Structures are given as structure tokens and as C-alpha cells.
Amino acid sequence: MPTPAISVVMSVFNGERFLAPAIESVLAQDFADFEFFILDDGSWDGSTRIIRRYAEADSRIRPILRENRGLIASLNEMIELSRAPIIARMDADDICRPDRFGKQIGFLAGHPDYGVVGSWSEDIDENGDKLFRTGPDHPETHEELLTAIECGGQLICHPAAMYRKAVVESVGRYHAAFQHCEDFDLWLRLSSVTRLGNIPERLLRYRRYSTQVSSRHATEQQIGTAVAQAAWRERKAGRADPTADLDRLPSIEELDHLFQRPGIARKVREQVVLSLLYSASALRGEGFDLLIRHLRDGGRRSGMWRTVARLVRFGEPGRALRLAATLTTSTSP
């Protein structure tokens, strides 16, 4: 078989609800020279049946059906199997614009110094209706992306990313320790070996709903993000990355030992807490315990009384009272 220009990689776990339109949006691309890996990561819903049906109808689809191993293992497996020099990411609940692949591969062809290109996205709800955006769009140039790393901004929307296989393999692909923020860690590692950017067009319709991974694992995601940034600062300073060979991240309390420097754990905890103050799922879960620990350690309290009111709105009056009591008895550093 001739080598395709692009290998598309999509991992699916119990994704039957949105899977068909996601697959169809890839098959409808106006740039058609691709192979399409769809890996069913141990689904027990109707995902396997849907994948088989589309694979029978389109020879570009290369289905992989196996037991559950997790997203990071699935992505690394598909990268290894990919025959094309360019890989396009796609999620099983989003929708590509028909010209996405053509515009991104055109960008990479015209910018050989760029190893990764994403795009802006349009947020949609579970019914496919457009959502109102409140935050800034992703940075366009590599220089803007480096600034975003420094200030904790968005980098590249993972399912909108297209990258050169060789450059991703040169940094060890996705790292197992960074579950639920594996893309953010990868972008940080790639930022020192290649240029990254985004096409300022909404080439992906990004679906947001309450049961998606980023909502269910908000606290774990933010912890991983903060640790990835700490590791990036180590590399930037010319020191060894203590997370490079980890299969999982240690607890926040163990980070001072991991990085061999005091103050890392406290800094990470504060960053995580401040990023979760508007997340109902996080404040109903382990994020609330991190918030209390942060305050008892003398952490920053600015805006915390508004979080008390927010907890009431989230239907958590008991936690609101506990936070108010902590704010009353805690002292500022």
C-alpha cells in the first residue's frame, strides 16, 4: 500500500453517543490522503459495532479492537503503527471542519520549522449547538505560545493538533505519568525542540458536556498541569527533569522530595487550588480538600469568600460552612 500523507489517530472508550459524527467528519475531509486509526480501548457500549461498520465501508479506516489500557498507551500505540510522517489527532466526541486537514498540512508544508500546528475551535454542547466563548483563543505563533506557558494560558487544543511523527518520537511520545493532561506535558517538552502554533480559524467543533474526561478529572488534570510546568521550569534552567521516567505522579506532598527543592509542593498546591475555584466537580471532590490544606498552610485567600457563595450555588452548603470557618480561623502568610 502507498504511504499516506497523514495518519489520523482516534482513541475511543464508550464513545457511541458522539462517535458516528466524529468519524464522518474525518471521512468527509477535502484532503483525503490519509489512513485512519480508530482504537477501541475496551469499550462495553456500542462503540465496537460502530467502528466495524465504518471500517467495512471505508478502506482508509484501520480499526484496533482490544482491552482497556488507557488513552496514553492507546495514543503511543497508534503513533508507533502510523505509516505517515504527519499525524492528526482527533477525539471521538468532536467534529472536524471539512477543510481542517488540508489547511493544517498546508501550514506544515509551508513552515518546516514548525513541528506542531493546531487551530482555534468552536465550542458546542452535547446537542451540537454552539456555546458562547468567554476565554481567549489559543496563541497563533510560537512566541505567543511561549508567553502562554509562562502565564499558564492555553496552548493547543489536543483533538485539533497535527504534528510531525519524528519530532514527537524524538521526545519520547506521550508520558505515562501525565494522565488527563498528557497533551499539555507533550507541548511543553516539544516547545524546546520545535516551533508550535495555531491556525486562527475554527477548524474543529469542540464538544463540552458534564461527563467528559476534563470535567470528571478536573483536579487530577490541574495537578498534572502544575507538575508539568514545574518540570518545564527545571528543563529551562538546565536541570534534569525528575518526571521523565515516572509511570505516575507522586502526591503533592512528595514533590519537594522529587524535585529535591523545598517549596515546590506549596507552589503546585496553590496553582491547582486557584485554577479550580470555579469548578463544581472539583469543589465537590478532592479539590475542596486541597483548598482547605492551602488555606491552613497560610496560602493566598483573595477571593475565597466568593468561593463560599459559589459552593452554596453548587448545592454544597456544608462545604461552604467549612470553608467559611477555615477562612475565619486561618491567618494570612
Automatic annotation (TrEMBL):
The protein, known as: Glycosyl transferase family 2
Any one Pfam family match given in the protein's UniProt record, by short name: Glycos_transf_2
Keywords, comma-separated and alphabetical: Transferase
InterPro entries reported for this sequence: Glyco_trans_2-like, Nucleotide-diphossugar_trans
Glycosyltransferase 2-like domain span: 7-171
Annotated GO MF terms: hexosyltransferase activity
The species this protein was found in: Novosphingobium guangzhouense
Matches recorded under Gene3D superfamilies: Spore Coat Polysaccharide Biosynthesis Protein SpsA, Chain A
